[in-house]
Write a structure and sequence with these properties.
This protein folds into two domains: 202 residues, Rossmann fold, CATH 3.40.50; 105 residues. It is 45% helix and 17% strand. The strands form two sheets. Strands 5-6-7-3-8-9 form a six-stranded mixed β-sheet, sandwiched between helices. The relative contact order is 0.12.
Length: 313
């Protein structure tokens, strides 16, 4: 077991006004099986490329393992599958390769066929087992179930359930539920890691979103009340201040010192209310940051299921 430590990771594409990641810090245990989720355009692919060192960035990524990416690029597909497996995992023995194929319910005879003659599912299996057999690495698995039939997909689920040390990107929520034990979510303002699968993450996110929406609505009501009270208080203060220069019906001058003191007291109350309003606004600024608002706030609850489901796209 070791840790992958990401500290103050900051990255933005040239010419882009906003950074994709801004001072992001977290740690990953190399024994974890993580599902990487986030809406399209939030930086899932960018994050995988940063881990591989393909982009320059600010901050640091420290680790004692090598990152390997799936799908692995095979340059000469005319070679026999066994040759490609040995190239990827040069220290693996033939019996280990055969054992891994058996775990995927795959006939070892595929090893002695050219790679390009294998089916899509057989190619996926061969490359994955080779990467796992390589050793001292942490796999970055990108959409492994694309174009797989149901049987091959289930083989892959059973296989990954027995493995550890990888991040997998998938649009298939059921697949994520069965193969991961942690979720790493790229949100609007941060990257967050939770223990559990996609369903547990989804439940926690909906609970947090609903709490923030209700708190936001309450703060809106409080701010409206405080603003009305502040406006009334300021109005009263101005009226008292003006009355210092008036006389009563008996033509006696009103006690201007008393009125000035009263005006100052009312104005002080107004300033206190303004402070409360600003405090409430500051509290609001910490809400709804990670809620994707495609529609108005009042419609969010109706579309909550749709918004959360799309998070693993």
């Amino acid at each position: 077991m070791s840790l992958i430590n990401i500290n103050n990771l900051t990255f933005g594409y040239d010419g882009s006004y906003n950074n994709v990641f801004e001072n992001v810090s977290f740690s990953i245990d190399t024994n974890w099986k993580l599902g990487l989720i986030g809406r399209n355009g939030k930086g899932k692919t960018t994050f995988l490329k940063l881990l591989q060192g393909k982009y320059k960035y600010q901050g640091s990524i420290s680790k004692n393992v090598e990152f390997d990416y799936f799908p692995f690029e095979v340059k000469n597909k005319e070679r026999m599958a066994i040759e490609i497996a040995e190239e990827i995992a040069p220290n693996a023995q033939d019996w280990e390769i055969i054992k891994e194929l058996n775990l995927l319910d795959t006939n070892p005879e595929i090893l002695y066929r050219s790679f390009n003659s294998l089916s899509g599912g057989e190619q996926v299996k061969l490359l994955l087992i080779s990467l796992f057999l390589k050793g001292n690495n942490f796999l970055l698995i990108d959409e492994p179930t694309n174009h797989l039939d149901v049987e091959t997909r289930n083989n892959l689920i059973n296989y990954l359930d027995k493995k550890k040390g990888f991040i997998v990107v998938s649009h298939d929520r059921n697949f994520l539920d069965k193969v991961v034990d942690h979720i790493i979510s790229i949100n609007n303002t941060n990257i967050e890691i939770q223990k559990g699968n996609f369903s547990s993450w989804k439940e926690n996110k909906e609970r947090q979103d609903n709490f923030e929406i209700k708190q936001n609505e309450q703060l809106n009501r409080d701010i409206n009340k405080l603003e009305i009270a502040s406006q009334n208080t300021a109005k009263w203060s101005n009226e008292v201040e003006k009355s210092k220069y008036k006389t009563n019906n008996s033509e006696k001058t009103i006690d201007r010192g008393y009125l000035g003191h009263k005006s100052a007291k009312i104005m002080k109350q107004s300033k206190v209310m303004e402070g409360k309003i600003q405090k409430a606004i500051n509290e609001k600024s910490n809400l709804l940051r990670n809620i994707d608002m495609n529609e108005s706030l009042k419609n969010y609850t109706i579309n909550n299921e749709k918004n959360t489901n799309n998070f693993c796209e």
